[in-house]
Amino acid sequence: MGAIRTTCAYCGVGCGISAEVRGERAVAISGDRDHPANRGSLCSKGTHLGETVGLEGRLLAPMIGQGEASWDEALDLVAGRMRDCIAEHGPDSVAFYVSGQLLTEDYYAANKLMKGFIGSGNIDTNSRLCMASAVAAHTRAFGEDVVPCSYDDLDAADLVLLVGSNTAWCHPVIWQRLEKTRERRGTRIVVIDPRRTETAEQADLHIPVAPDGDVALFNALLADMKRRGLVDEEYLATHVAVDAGFWDDLSPESGIPDAIFRKLCDLVARHPRTVTLFSQGANQSVCGTDKGNAITNFHLATGRINRIGAGPFSITGQPNAMGGREVGGLANMLACHLGFSEEERAEAAAFWNAPNICTGPGLKAVDMFRAVHAGKIRFLWVMATNPAVSLPDSTFVREALARCPTVVVSDVIADTDTGRLAHVRLPAHAWGEKDGTVTNSERRISRQRALFSPPGQTRADWQIVADVAARMGWGESFAWANAAAVFREYAHMTGLAKARDKVLDLAVLAEMDDAAYADMEPFKWGGERPFAKGYPTASGKARLVAVTAPAEVTDPAFPLRLNTVRYRDQWHTMTRTGLSPALSHHRPEPLLEVHPDDASDLGLVEGGFGRVETAHGNSVYRVSLTKGQRRGEICVPMHWSDAMAGQGRSNRLPSQAVDPVSGQPGYKNGAARVTAIAPEWRAFVVRRDVLAPEGVLYWTRSRVKTGWLYELAGDGTIDLAALLPDGERLEVADTARGMRRIAVRGEDGALIAAAYVTRSGELPSRTWVAEQVGLKEASAAEVLAGRPSTPLPDRGPIVCVCHGVGEKEIALAVHDGAAAVAEVGACTRAGTNCGSCRPAIARLIATFSSLEQEAAQ
Ligand SMILES: Nc1nc2c(c(=O)[nH]1)N[C@H]1C(S)=C(S)[C@@H](COP(=O)(O)OP(=O)(O)OC[C@H]3O[C@@H](n4cnc5c(=O)[nH]c(N)nc54)[C@H](O)[C@@H]3O)O[C@H]1N2
Ligand SMILES: Nc1nc2c(c(=O)[nH]1)N[C@H]1C(S)=C(S)[C@@H](COP(=O)(O)OP(=O)(O)OC[C@H]3O[C@@H](n4cnc5c(=O)[nH]c(N)nc54)[C@H](O)[C@@H]3O)O[C@H]1N2
Ligand code: SF4
Ligand SMILES: [Mo]
């Protein structure tokens, strides 16, 4: 079979993939050279998609409680409970919480069912946690949620401002594209982020802005442009309405040191072709909408928009965050960029032939779960998202789910934290089986195509929605034969938006037949310059929105500012990337990153443990000291769930505070305190299967080739043997040091598990031990020693996950004279495949060469 062209499962860059199926659940992945988003490149996550398409952990049959059920039983139960709930408590007692990881077709079906047939606006999406502030800012500034830029603009820009975006980790292929254009034409890159991320390290200028300091910074930047006479008065006069008092209220206080601010202003003044790419450091804030508008204000006022190489570019997170915004998956949008006016609702009702068109907007995510908690919503259907991990104040969210009379979860994985709280679990097609469309950050619609036949009883998400609708008596309106039919209906419906002079318009695709849909090439709606004919507002003008910097928040009980972020090789709640051994190398444990000076004040040590506490909960992390953190600020990852760790779930910590306009949570600037923890023992265990250790201070698991590596720490005694499977046990112990080691062999003589605990000394290298599990020839003596008798060269921590190149090999290459990333690649192969580790290699080169220089002096 030839290669199948599809789209990556992960981020909003929307890279095209060329997939060669190599057998049952086996696939060779490479970048699609013909896809305009990536032209053949893929990052580490896309490259290793093949490691996550197995059936390990998949939900393969409908489940009612812990028991397997038939589809008929499950669907009857779901529809029956929904019908009863609507009859007794009204349509607003039902809610759907959906996701940017659904296909457009899935999203369309769910939105139609809720807003046209159930008759409530209560469908919201995890994009509320992600893009809602950008959506609100677009709507305030442009009149419609439209991103005015394309990736080509990044190639044409002379200056790129990255605001709250760790692009090198979270949108790596865009980062690689930026690096290439920088090489070609000297693009300047500025990173505005409180942390010195790997992206910031590679930038021409890093501005370590204070948390939520962005409004002040962009206002001051615009004030400076005004002073310099760089405001485009003509553009303003023709295309922009200006809020009363806008210029008078624009504060020149940038909030950052003068010298850095001047550097920024000079760069901006010199380079009219400016793109501002912004992401969660902007959106996930209680002033996220204002941040978005501070950015659009700057672009509108300087005329740096609607031109090649210029514009505000909100970059999307999930593969189909944009598709969800189009169809209307947000509670405050009806469908296809329509609002809730009498006429718009009537138009949608007529189009859908809907019996129960909703009367107005529904509840936004955080409010939705509050209503569940309060017993107002009594039926909740969660699709393709894991809110028990990803919503803020997740202890409250779990309480809400536990109280809710009916929780339905559609997922691809059997054991998720949210699934544990569900009454009914419905098995959906996963990436590799899904068939439909997604829209990326630049409005480009691409096909995801099925590679495998669906396993077990899994069904397409849109089909599951249609099946429930049919049982509710609305079968005729949901009787699509295939994904193509759903897509056509959606494309047709965008005609309503077009008739209202909106930019969203897919009418040309409404008549495509199944064959054309099957072969559909990536297609961008809105064209290159979506506002070329003016802005989609009544006056045809955009708007400068007056925004003011928020007051600084301080809380003596919780003096540290808490930031929560992503890691390069993990995706969200780890249900899929957590299954990949290669992707688990980069950061196998959740780290508490802290400035060394704060650490010494707090008694934290590198590799030790720290407990982060807020008014809402607490979590325990491995400590990592880094000067990349500003003093007084700490940072933890968002990824770890209860399924993957005992204590590292970060959303125990944030409050429910949201942006008043967008409803998006302020995940990135919480109030916290930290205490050092010195556990009496530390241990690690390698075994093939999944385990949930109880009664320990700290545990996490990460995927290794032959099973799982568990890191543990605690006080008192540890029953190491209880953590191990049955089999022949060999053991050594040194009670004086509190050291004990056990190796377990299975019936065929192969090593099946090993465990190591210490109360004082060091633990052996995990990498080598993990590789012994499953080997018949593994030597018990060596395993108990924790190392081979003939020492192997120590590669150090793996940096390049594609070629398995370690830090020490890179040090050696630098020692031998390699001075650039490409030279390290030439001698070690590191960074020569997907390139995601290139920023890390660049940093290591800098570190090692300065060490060499010091040594030489
Ligand atoms: N590897 C990986 N890639 C992903 C994802 C993933 O889970 N893993 N998820 C995808 C999704 S859904 C999304 S939404 C994107 C998110 O992509 P990003 O937004 O790049 O990711 P984050 O790490 O959440 O946050 C970005 C940066 O914002 C900074 N920040 C915090 N507070 C502020 C502030 O007040 N001002 C400014 N200017 N910056 C601040 C943080 O320090 C952090 O470095 O990534 C997508 N890509
Ligand atoms: N503290 C903190 N919290 C955050 C963030 C942060 O920066 N800090 N970021 C927020 C952001 S931007 C986002 S986008 C969210 C993401 O948060 P979530 O959406 O909760 O995270 P995922 O792990 O991607 O969850 C997707 C779920 O859907 C399942 N799934 C995958 N594909 C399919 C499919 O095709 N069909 C179905 N039915 N199920 C599928 C997966 O197994 C998984 O259980 O987290 C938010 N939470
Ligand atoms: S940048 Fe990486 S994760 Fe994002 S779409 Fe491309 S390959 Fe997938
Ligand atoms: Mo996101």
From TrEMBL:
Q: Which GO terms describe its biological process?
A: cellular respiration; nitrate assimilation
GO MF terms held by the record: 4 iron, 4 sulfur cluster binding; metal ion binding; molybdopterin cofactor binding; oxidoreductase activity
Q: Which family does it belong to?
A: Belongs to the prokaryotic molybdopterin-containing oxidoreductase family. NasA/NapA/NarB subfamily.
Give the protein's recorded name. Answer: Nitrate reductase
Q: Which cofactor does it need?
A: [4Fe-4S] cluster; Mo-bis(molybdopterin guanine dinucleotide)
Residues that span the membrane, as ranges? none
Keywords, in A-Z order? 4Fe-4S, Iron, Iron-sulfur, Metal-binding, Molybdenum, Nitrate assimilation, Oxidoreductase
Give a yes or no for keyword Translocase in this entry: no
Q: Which Pfam families match?
A: Fer2_BFD, Molybdop_Fe4S4, Molybdopterin, Molydop_binding
Where do the 4Fe-4S Mo/W bis-MGD-type domain residues begin and end?
1-57
Q: Which domain of life is it from?
A: Bacteria
GO terms under cellular component: membrane; oxidoreductase complex
